[in-house]
Amino acid sequence: MESMLSSLSPVWIVLIAIAVVAVGVAVFLAVQAYRKHRLATAIVQRDKAPVHYAFILNPSKPGAEEVKGQILAFFESHHLAEPMIVETQLDKDGRDCAREAMERGADAIVAVGGDGTVRTAASAVAGSDRPFGIVPIGTGNLFARNMGIPIGDVDAALTVATSHGSRKVDMGRLALLDSEEPERKHAFLIIAGIGFDAAMIDDTDPALKKNISWLAYFVGGVKNLFTPRYHGDVTIIGTDGKEQTSKNISFRTFMAGNCGQIPGFSLMPEAAYDDGILDFELIDTTGGLIGWANLFGDVVHQTITRKAEQNPLSTNSSVDQTQGVRARIRLEKPALAEVDGDILGKTSLIEFTVEHRALCVRVPEVPATMPDATGVMEPVKVPAAGDSELVEEATAMASDDDRSRAAQEQQSSKD
Predict the structure, then answer these.
(1) Percent of the chain at pLDDT exceeding 90
(2) Is residue 206 part of a domain?
(3) What is the Cα–Cα distance from 122 to 94, expressed in whole angstroms?
(4) Which of 124, 232, 335, 350 pairs with 155 at a CA distance of 20 to 30 A?
(5) What is the pLDDT of residue 387?
(6) Does 245 lie in the same domain as 114?
(7) What SUPFAM superfamilies would the database entry show (predicted)?
(8) Do 210 and 338 fall within a single domain?
(9) Residue 66 CB contacts under 8 Å (≥ 6 apart), including other chains
(10) Does a structural domain hold residue 25?
(11) Which residues contact 71 (CB under 8 A, 6 or more apart)?
(12) Domain presence at residue 399
């Protein structure tokens, strides 16, 4: 062999080397071409697979029938397959409707209503990996506001709901352990609580709420300023698994928050809807109106500072805030409990838990660097009502990025 190589001239050696390199390049290009073909095929197949949307509509909301017409017109004008519309009833809430829609083959669920409709529909969708959209037509719409979803512009909300920009958020759960259904865990996306906040919501006039929106809750609150305080034991399990129990404490209200922002105020400045943690807040006042006035000052203070801390000048009020993954309360006497503004009834034994990033929510702003994003939409300001074209342009960008990303992930998994 050595004699054969030595007999070859340098020219032949160069030619053989060039041939080997050429074959390598040809093989590389062939592999790349094959991968591009598979990538293109994956994109085409993805585009040909229609998304079946189901809208969970609360017909009791003002303008619900008009919104229903807007939904159908939107899908027709955007050449989308006709959506399924399932209406809630007195004996059939958003959870039941969403379950029915998924059993009938819905790929994506969109809640059309207020926080109650959103909460119950999301309860069924959580953990399914199906995208969840929101078209807010209620009064408070607190979760939609925390997500940056357009309020008062149905077409803009529909554009977001049918885009590919999503982020995964936590879902809180509340169980009434002394009820007829102790195993049932009621969902909440914003705040759940027991005590004053539930009594305030229960005493809010629905007719007044329709006229002045969430401000009606203040009227319900005034009715409960001088009700007796609550007494019991509170146990909180932290992120490290350690359990801390406070016995025989007195308080006005105990709340667990997933989102801490309400219009104009920050109830829980450090609450994050995707950290797998609940923010717990134990509130108490003494001294009658003086205590309540100081409590209002505490809320204003933490709204301005954006820190979970009490106003150093405050007296006759206390706001104790901590974080954890679970909490249990045992009361001396039953008290009302609520989840996202829905009253569950009275209970003496209650438990809060959280499901980490259980719900995939369609939102208008999704940074490319955000973990668990199912699509990418460059951060944009939600336009004013009537500027839906701007949202549609941003959504088109999100769809393109999402399509490319999905195809790349599908290709890498096959390779």
Answers:
(1) 56
(2) yes
(3) 8
(4) 124
(5) 42
(6) no
(7) NAD kinase/diacylglycerol kinase-like (SSF111331)
(8) yes
(9) none
(10) no
(11) 55, 83, 85, 112, 135, 154, 158
(12) no
Q: Determine the structural domain holding residue 58 and report its residue range.
A: 50-163
Q: Do residue 147 and residue 239 come from a single domain?
A: no
> 308 and 224, same structural domain?
yes
pLDDT digits (tens, 9 = 90+) for 249-279: 999 999 999 998 887 888 899 899 999 999 9
Single out the residue in 132, 163, 194 at which a domain terminates: 163
Residues 77 and 137 in one domain: yes
- Specify the amino acid at residue 278: L
Output the domain CATH number for residue 230.
Answer: 2.60.200.40
pLDDT score recorded for residue 31: 58
Lowest mean pLDDT of 13-22, 142-151, 282-291, 322-331, name the range: 13-22
Do 156 and 184 reside in the same domain of the chain?
Answer: no
Q: Does residue 323 carry a pLDDT above 90?
A: yes
Q: Are residues 178 and 326 in the same domain?
A: yes
Looking at residue 357, its amino acid is R
Q: Is 109 helix (H, G, I), strand (E, B) or coil?
A: strand
Cα gap 144→371, rounded to integer Å: 21
For residue 315 the two structure tokens come to 């007296």
pLDDT of 184 higher than 50: yes
**Integer Cα distance of 182 and 188 in angstroms:** 17
Report yes or no: 260 and 303 within 8 Å, Cβ to Cβ.
Answer: no
Q: How confident is the model at residue 25 (pLDDT cuts 50, 70, 90)?
A: low
Q: What is the number of other CB atoms lying within 10 angstroms of the CB of residue 81?
A: 10
C-beta of residue 167 within 8 angstroms of C-beta of residue 161:
no
The pLDDT of residue 41: 45
> How many CB atoms are closer than 10 A to CB 335?
23
Report pLDDT for 23. Answer: 64
Q: Which amino acid is at 51?
A: V
User: Are 159 and 110 spatial neighbours (Cβ–Cβ below 8 Å)?
Assistant: no
Which residue type, as a one-letter code, is found at position 7? S
User: CATH number for the domain including 106?
Assistant: 3.40.50.10330
The pair of structure tokens assigned to 249 is 């404490």
Q: Which residue has the tokens 């003494």?
A: 286
Beta-carbon-side half-sphere exposure of residue 14 (alpha carbons within 13 Å): 3
Helix axes 10-48, 388-414, angle to 10 degrees: 130
CA distances (Å), 61 to each of 116, 121, 151, in order? 11, 16, 15
Report the first-to-last Cα separation within the chain, whole angstroms. Answer: 39
The verdict on residue 26 lying in a domain is: no
Number of structural domains, the chain?
2
* CB contact set of 329 (below 8 Å; sequence gap of 6+): 194, 232, 233, 234, 235, 254, 349, 350, 351
Does the reported pTM lie above 0.70? yes
